[in-house]
Amino acid sequence: MRNSTRSQVDPFIVMDVMQAAAAAEAEGHHIIHMEVGQPGTGAPKGASAALTAAMEQGALGYTVALGLPALRKRIALMYAEWYNVDLDPSRVVITSGSSGGFILTFTSLFDTGDRVGIGAPGYPSYRQILKALDLTPVDLPTSIENRLQPVPSDFADMDLQGLLVASPGNPTGTMLDHGAMSALIDATQGQGASFISDEIYHGIEYEKKAVTALEISNDAYVINSFSKYFSMTGWRVGWMVVPEDHVRVVERIAQNMFICAPHASQVAALAAMDCTAELEANMDVYRANRAMMITGLRDAGFTSFAPPDGAFYVYADVSSLTTDSRELARDILDKAGVAVTPGLDFDPVRGHQTLRFSYARSTQDIAEGLGRLKAYMAAR
Ligand SMILES: Cc1ncc(COP(=O)(O)O)c(C=O)c1O
Question: SUPFAM superfamilies given for it (predicted)?
């Protein structure tokens, strides 16, 4: 039996790193995980308690496709609380993680062969999901001067039907400020293309608040998730905000593709939104880890990176050390017992000379990892 051409997507290299790290652990080695892009913490306690209560009360069958009304309403309220944006809950769509949101978004907005701009470096699955839907990802190589985020001149003559940005971004953690986001929205709309903003790392910001595209325009798709700030990766629940006249279109696709996001996870997510003390305690850990990473990596000899504005990653240029980031990551794992991600997942061209370090784990792990990296670099 043949496979479709569309199905030929690339593997996630970080998964290979995780597998190599697991193999080393199985042999009895102690590995520090700086490769994984997820919180080490679980869902907030209030979320589990709410789910336990809901399971005793009812069957948790399907919800309506757009999601539990109470959750959509609570998310709309969050836009008032976080950004001072007045949002009609009817524009909020609950999804199976932001990953489900991308499928709904791309299906709703684009036709076969349409060209969608994505910043390089960027989250690898954008490219692969687009390809799997027979769409054309167009890499926009970003520059350090623009803090590795796209700017309008990067796609002036590109004939795009869409632009997808992430702020804070993965792998860089850099953000678009109000002016930069506005310029991108204006340029995209000026070309008659659709603007999509991946805001999954909102809430995990250090020096200033992230800007939502909804502060600037209602004519955009915003994608978000409970995976990162709310620490609920495995629950597979997220949301999107779409223009009013797109709600029904997205609803019909969601009904057919997913029926609904997991009911249990929606119940837990609603409760998680009020677990502020616990979520802010997680933030204290990220803040401490970030400060430690900025000094510790420089001290170890990884000096070329922009301090992250948000998320929990440092993306470092290692061109003075290697032209083969995969081999360098392997050597660091073998000799230092620290798992890190080669940049190739995020940027197929320049990623040969970059590494991503995640600091989502405990501060104790980060301190140990930085100590090991320093010893490794000293012995090179
Ligand atoms: C930038 C970005 N967007 C989307 C996702 C997917 O997240 P989820 O499907 O868990 O919401 C990730 C996961 O790491 C990410 O880094």
Answer: PLP-dependent transferases
362 shares its domain with 241: no
Angle, helix 97-109 to helix 124-132, in steps of 10 degrees: 50
Bond before 171 cis per omega within 30 degrees: yes
Judge if 327 and 362 occupy the same domain.
yes
- pLDDT single digits (tens) 140-183: 999 999 999 999 999 999 999 999 999 999 999 999 999 999 99
Quick check: is 330 in a domain?
yes
Which residue's CA is the nearest one to ligand 1's atom 16?
Answer: 170
Distance between first and last Cα of the chain: 49
Whole-angstrom CA distances from 41 to 22, 219, 244 are 19, 35, 36
78 and 171 in a common domain: yes
Specify whether 235 is located in the same domain as 161.
Answer: yes
121 pocket-lining for ligand 1 (C-beta < 6 Å): no
Binding site membership of 200 for ligand 1 (Cβ less than 6 Å): yes
What is the value of pTM for the model shown? Answer: 0.97
Domain extent for 359:
5-43+277-379
Q: What is the CATH number of the domain that holds 249?
A: 3.40.640.10
List, in order, residues 6 or more apart from 355 with CB less than 8 Å away: 302, 315, 316, 318, 325, 328, 329, 340, 341, 342, 343
What single-letter DSSP state applies at residue 234? G
231 CB within 6 A, ligand 1:
no
pLDDT of residue 89: 98
Residue 25, number of CB atoms within 10 A of its CB: 14
